[in-house]
């Protein structure tokens, strides 16, 4: 039997790919397939005389074309249906840009892995039947998927099936013909029915309520485990979404990483000198705790200020955008009114022209001379109608252009005023925050001065008593060198003020970028 199947393969390929050279999808193939599929006979011949408008193509079938690789589909941005079944495609690739795709058929190919489908968020029907796929993966982002067929592949594990629970629109699923479905001790159909309560059809068979109840009894323990893990994942996702939303809000407020002790912690990150000085004893530790408290209070002031100014800016931006949209809608309404008035006038003129032409035709049919008085009068009426229509068309164009120009000037003026107002708001925010950064630097200097006294007293006491047992090894080399001690303290102060300056500069730079990006986007 196996030898018979092997002997049939060349014959099958001859039938499927008659005189077709293996190749890659290109523009010529796309246009040929479109004309073959969309038009027949004389209609196709006439369409071949005109260039194919690729942007208008919604559906295309490229079946039995001996295709080895997918390419050039980016020239079909509005494609909603793509059939590439019965080819020799090995990799799903170069389809990421087809974001409008709803129906994708890749059946009867040589695909080994499900991949590169993440951007196809509107996909509703996906067929990967009869390929060489070994694993269920990379499908979870297809939230609108309704029909999925991955039967007759090489899938030998149920891993990945539980991810279908996050595809809430999935109604039809087919896994028949896979090794995992052939295990007599593990009825895959019952497992699928249990795990996917929204599924209506499995292997093209309607799922009856008694079938589902029977399956749920058998796999109740597995279902509880999957539901528990799913609930944990949903909670983790929600928590991550909240964190990302909060991080985005803080970033837009320019006070991210200022809601806690992040700034203070950054002081010591690369401050080897400061960490050495903290080893002198309890007094230094107590002073550092007080230092941390003062820094935290000031960063909290900056944090609150940033959030407050963010709310004010956000409200100003929303008001501006609303006014902008209102202006555009008003222009559209006025323009539509002009066009509707013109179309009504056009209908009247065309009707009058039809009547006039009919009279002229009747006169000619009755044997009247074209230069007769009545025909000349009718011709004069047609000429006047033509002139008046051209004048009306030109007047409408001038009105529409005038409205467009007025809107353009208004938006330009509004954008300039908005830019000025947002810039003023940002400047005020930076000025207020700068006063807190000045205080942070003063606190850092004050801490350094107090540390100088504590370290000097500590060393003096140890020298007087010649007691060096509890002196940190890092400080022993500086015991007789006051300048070395002062250099350690100066290094600590420089490290801390550098972090303060860096955070202040970052805030100023990002606020400027925010304004520039917003104005560029508006323009």
From TrEMBL:
GO CC terms in record: cilium
Keyword Plastid tagged: no
Cell compartments where the protein resides: Cytoplasm, Cytoskeleton, Flagellum axoneme
Main location: cytoplasm
SUPFAM superfamilies listed in its UniProt record: Outer arm dynein light chain 1 (SSF52075)
SMART domains in the record: LRR_SD22 (SM00365)
Highest taxon, organism lineage: Eukaryota
Keywords: Cell projection, Cilium, Coiled coil, Cytoplasm, Cytoskeleton, Flagellum, Leucine-rich repeat, Repeat
InterPro entries: Cilia_flagella_integrity, Leu-rich_rpt, LRR_dom_sf
One Pfam family of this chain: LRR_9
UniProt keyword Repeat present: yes
Functional summary from the UniProt entry: Cilium-specific protein required for cilia structures.
Protein family according to the UniProt entry: Belongs to the DRC3 family.
Protein name, entry field: Dynein axonemal assembly factor 1 homolog
Organism, as annotated: Drosophila virilis
Gene field: PPrY
């Amino acid at each position: 039997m196996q030898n018979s199947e092997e002997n049939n393969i060349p014959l099958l390929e001859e039938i499927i790919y008659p005189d077709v050279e293996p190749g890659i999808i290109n523009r010529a193939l796309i246009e040929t397939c479109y004309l073959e599929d969309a038009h027949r006979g004389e209609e196709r011949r006439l369409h071949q005389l005109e260039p194919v408008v690729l942007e208008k193509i919604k559906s295309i079938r490229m079946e039995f074309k001996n295709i080895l690789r997918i390419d050039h589909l980016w020239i079909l941005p509005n494609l909603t249906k793509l059939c590439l079944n019965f080819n020799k495609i090995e990799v799903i690739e170069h389809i990421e840009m087809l974001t409008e795709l709803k129906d994708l058929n890749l059946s009867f190919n040589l695909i080994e892995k499900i991949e590169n489908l993440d951007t196809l968020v509107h996909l509703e029907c996906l067929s990967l039947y009869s390929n060489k796929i070994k694993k269920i993966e990379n499908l979870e982002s297809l939230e609108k998927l309704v029909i999925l067929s991955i039967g007759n592949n090489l899938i030998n594990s149920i891993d990945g099936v539980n991810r279908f629970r996050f595809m809430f629109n999935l109604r039809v699923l087919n896994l028949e013909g896979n090794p995992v479905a052939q295990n007599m001790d593990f009825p895959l159909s019952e497992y699928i029915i249990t795990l996917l309560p929204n599924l209506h059809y499995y292997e093209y068979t309607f799922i009856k309520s008694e079938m589902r109840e029977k399956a749920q009894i058998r796999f109740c323990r597995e279902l509880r485990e999957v539901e528990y893990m799913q609930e944990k994942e949903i909670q983790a996702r929600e928590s991550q979404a909240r964190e990302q939303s909060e991080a985005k809000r803080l970033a837009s407020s320019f006070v991210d990483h200022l809601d806690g002790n992040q700034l203070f912690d950054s002081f010591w990150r690369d401050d080897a000198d400061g960490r050495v000085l903290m080893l002198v004893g309890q007094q230094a530790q107590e002073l550092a705790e007080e230092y941390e408290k003062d820094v935290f209070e000031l960063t909290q002031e900056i944090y609150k200020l940033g959030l407050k100014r963010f709310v004010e800016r956000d409200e100003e931006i929303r008001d501006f955008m609303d006014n902008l949209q209102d202006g555009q809608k008003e222009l559209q309404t006025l323009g539509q009114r002009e066009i509707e008035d013109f179309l009504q006038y056009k209908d009247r003129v065309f009707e009058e022209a039809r009547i006039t032409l009919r009279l002229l035709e009747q006169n000619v049919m009755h044997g009247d001379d074209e230069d007769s008085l009545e025909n000349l009068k009718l011709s004069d009426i047609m000429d006047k109608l033509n002139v008046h229509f051209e004048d009306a068309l030109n007047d409408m164009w001038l009105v529409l252009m005038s409205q467009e120009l007025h809107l353009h000037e208004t938006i330009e003026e509004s954008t300039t005023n908005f830019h000025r107002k947002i810039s003023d708001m940002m400047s005020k925010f930076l000025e207020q925050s700068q006063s807190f950064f000045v205080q942070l630097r003063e606190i850092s200097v004050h801490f350094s001065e107090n540390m100088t006294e504590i370290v000097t007293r500590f060393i003096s006491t140890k020298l007087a008593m010649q007691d060096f047992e509890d002196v940190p090894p890092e400080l022993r080399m500086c015991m007789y060198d006051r300048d070395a001690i002062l250099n350690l303290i100066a290094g600590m102060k420089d490290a801390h003020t550098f972090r303060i300056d860096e955070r202040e500069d970052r805030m100023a730079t990002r606020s400027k970028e925010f304004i520039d990006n917003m104005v560029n986007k508006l323009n």
